[in-house]
Amino acid sequence: MITKESIENLKNHLDVVDVVSQFIELKKSGANFKACCPFHGEETPSFVVSPAKQIYHCFGCGVGGDSIKFVMEYEKLSYPETLEKLASMHNVSLDYDNTNNEKKQDTKVLEEVNKYYQKLFVNNNTAKEYIHSRGISEFSVEKFEIGYAPVSSDTINFLKNNYYNLADAKELGVIDTGQNGLYSRFIERITFPIYSISGKIVGFGGRTITGHNAKYVNSPQTKLFNKSKLLYGYNLAKENIYKKNRIIVTEGYLDVIMLHQAGFNTAVATLGTALTKEHLPLLRRGEPKVIVAYDGDSAGLNAAFKAAVMLSQSEFEGGVIIFGEGKDPADMVNDGKIEELNRIFANPQAFISFSIDHIIAKYDINDPSQKQKALFESNDYLKSLGMIYQDEYKRYIAQKLNIRENLVKVSTDVVRQNDVSLTKIDIAELCIIRSILEKPKRLDSVLDIIDSSMFEYHRNEFELLITDINHQSLNGIILNEKLEVYDDQRLNSELLVLLLKFYTNKLRSIQYNETLAFKEKANLLRKVKDNIYQLKLGKLVSYNL
C-alpha cells in the first residue's frame, strides 16, 4: 500500500495543466485553459482547467476533479495504478508500507531482460526471417518490443554479469532451478513481453523457432503474472478500446500484432488459455462491445462457445467471429484482406444465437430423442440469461428445432418454479459464500459493501452466514470441493462483478418505478449511478441504499 506521506508528496509535484496537457491539447483562455471534453463528444470546448485552483471541470457533461482523478478517468486505471503512473511520469518515488515496494523494484529485472532480448533479436537472422515471413513490419517489431531469448546459459550469464538479483529473476519467472542448476525459462524463442494495464512488464510469451516440443510458452504464475487476468496487447489497445467502444479478443500474439498493423488497434489476446471470469473486470473497462475472434478448428469453436456463454450470462454486448479454411486474422492481414476483415468485424454473430447454434449442432435433430436432448440443453442455457433474452430467444430455439414455442420453457414458468429439484445454482455466489466461510474474518469487511439482496439465487445461505456462521446447513457449501476458495484479490474481483450486476439491475428498476417521488427517485438514481461509476474504476463501494 502506498503511504499517505508519499501520496501527498506526489500531489505537491503535480500541476493539473501539465498533467492534462500530456493527454489532450489545451488552449489558453484568460486565466484558465480550455479544450473539447475527452469524456464526451463535443465541437465547442466546454472543458476548463484551472491552474489557480488545480482542478478541471466540464460544463457539458459535469465531470471534474484534480490531476489524479483526470488520469484515473482518462486512462481507466485504479487509484494505485494512477499514482504509480503519475509518479513515473514526474520522476517521483513512492513509498510503500508493505511488500508492494519490493514488487515495484523487482520489475527492473524484467525490464532489463526484455531490453537484452530485443538487442539479440536485431542480430538474429533466423528470428528476423520468421517474423518478416509472417508479414510483421519493423515498426511492429519495435511497437511490440519483439525479442529473442538465446540458449539458457547466455541469459544466466547476462544476469550474473550485470549483478542482477537471481532470486528476483527466479521469483519473476525469468529463470528457475532444475536438477542441473539454474536454467532460463525461455530458450531459443522469439519473445513477446506482456504488460499489465498500467504499463508494467510482468512476463513473457515465447515461440520456438528451433523445434522445441511446446510451440508457445508463457511465464509461470508469479506475484505479477497471472495469465487468467492478463490480455496481451491491452496496454497498447486500451485508449482505442475506450474511443471506439470495441475490443477484439483473439487467440494469439501474432493475430494481435498483425491486426494492429492493419489498423485494428483494439485487438488483444488471451495468454494460451480461454477467457475466464477473471478476465471480466478487464473486459468491462469502458463497457466496449466484445468481439471474440477465434479459429474454426475444434479447439477454437469450443473456446468460442465457452466464452460466448460466459459473456452472455454476464450481459456483455458483442458477438463471435469464427475464421474458417485454416486461416486466422494474422493470415488475412498478411494476404491483404483488410476490407474483408472490416466486414467480418462489423458483423459478428450474437453471443446467444452462437451458443444456441453450437449446442444444437451437437445433436442429430432428425432423431426425436436427440432433438429432445438438444431442447433440454439449450433450454438450460436459456434459463441462465436475463428475462428479456429468455423471451426473445425461446422463439429462436423453437425455429432451430422446428418445434412449438410453448415447448421451450423459461425460468418464469410456474412448473419450473415449483420444482425444488431444479432450483437454480449459481457457482459464483456459492464461491463467494464459501470463501467467507473459510476465512470468517472477511465477513466484517464484506458486510460494508454487500447486502443479502444482492444474492439472486443464494440469499438465504448468505443471511444464514450472517446470523449463524456455524449452522450445519452451511456444511454442504464448506465441503463442496467443486467450489473454489478465493484469495483476497480474487474475492474482490468477484464482488465487483456481483455489485455491478446488482446496481445495474437496481438502476433499471428505479428508472421504471413510477411510484417514487421525484426527489427520492433522483437521489436514488444519483447514488446508484455513482456506485456503478466507482465499480467500473475497480473500486468496491459501501452499500448506501
Alpha carbon gyration radius: 26 Å
CATH architectural grouping of the largest domain = 3-Layer(aba) Sandwich
Number of strands: 16
Number of helices: 25
Helix percentage range: 40-55%
Q: How many separate domains?
A: 5
- How would the global form be characterised? globular
* Spatial strand order of the main sheet: 1-2-3-4-5
Question: Could you report the average pLDDT, rounded to the nearest whole number?
Answer: 87
Q: What is the percentage of strand-forming residues?
A: 5-15%
Which sheet architecture does the biggest sheet show?
Answer: 5 strands, antiparallel
Describe what you observe in this structure.
It is globular and about 70 Å long. Helix 20 (427-438) packs across helix 24 (488-511). It is built from 25 helices and 16 strands. The two termini are 29 Å apart. It folds into five domains: 4-89, DNA Primase, Chain A (Alpha-Beta Complex); 104-218, DNA primase, catalytic core, N-terminal domain (DNA primase DNAg catalytic core, N-terminal domain, Alpha-Beta Complex), CATH 3.90.980; 234-356, Dna Topoisomerase Vi A Subunit, Chain: A, domain 2 (3-Layer(aba) Sandwich), CATH 3.40.1360.10; 362-422, no CATH class; 427-536, Orthogonal Bundle (DNAb Helicase, Chain A), CATH 1.10.860.10. The protein has 545 residues and is of the alpha+beta class. The chain has a five-stranded antiparallel sheet with strand order 1-2-3-4-5. A five-stranded mixed sheet has the order 13-12-14-15-16. A four-stranded antiparallel sheet has the order 6-9-10-11, covered by helices on one side.
